[in-house]
Amino acid sequence: MDQSGEYQRGAGDPDPGDPPERTSGLMLETCYRHPQVVTGVHCTRCGRPICTECMTPAPVGYQCPECVADARRTAPRRRVRVKFILGRPGSIATTLLIVNIGMFLVEAVVGGGGSLAGGPSEVKLFELGALYPPAIAKTASFPQHYQFWRLITAMFLHAGILHLALNMYALYLFGYLIENAFGTARFIAIYFVAGFLASVTSFAFGPIGEVGVGASGAIFGLLGAWVAYNYRRRASPLAAAQLQWALILIALNTVLAVSFRGIDWRAHVGGLAAGIVAGWLAEGWGPPRIRTFVQVGGLVGLVVLGVALTVWRVATFPV
Length: 319
Prior knowledge:
By secondary structure, the chain is mainly α.
């Protein structure tokens, strides 16, 4: 600065007209897809700079359009499964549906065209394996006795398409729920143990000379197991609601059972009671070893009870 107060540039001072020097090492970058847009964001996958228009949120940071497209191409494809309208039954429930419908087609072929609506005649149903007490017990008038297998085969026969439709719809709904809740092995055990005890109850306490068919005893067993399953979890609002729904269905079916003469309410009661107990036993309780003993031993005990009841009925059956 001179005596007049004006500043004079020294030899080492920069010229005011020169552009400012870059004092930091930073360089402004532009989007690789939009060169006119300045950005400081980089694709976390390839590292290229991207603007807000090219950003796609990722689990960490953002990715550019090309990396997103590449990830979609290389990602494993998921199998698209067709779902039913009202649910997705498991493999065993689906198998039971197919077997029951297949047996009804056999009934239609054996019984003729008229059997589609009302089912085959009692003689044809008997030949296919219907439950008929004199054929199970020992009687002087019926030489072909001790056909205990009818206690199982009757579960796969139906008296007409309406009978089949109602049972299969119920199996479709509860089959999905129970198989999903209990697993495949326990679902099979509950279904057949309840169905067996339903047939035994009908044989032991039902009319002597009537033919019985239908999967309703086993299906009521599934409903009973669903009651037991949700009762254990009744503190949950969802389980409480499902328990209430199941009890309403039981009440409705009780009204139907007393309203229509052709319904075997004894099989329904036997299947429902067996299902409640089987559903409770199937989950077990206590430490792992005790739990397994309760599950297996309890279900076997129900079968033994059914066998004992059958033996008693055979011994006391009218000659």
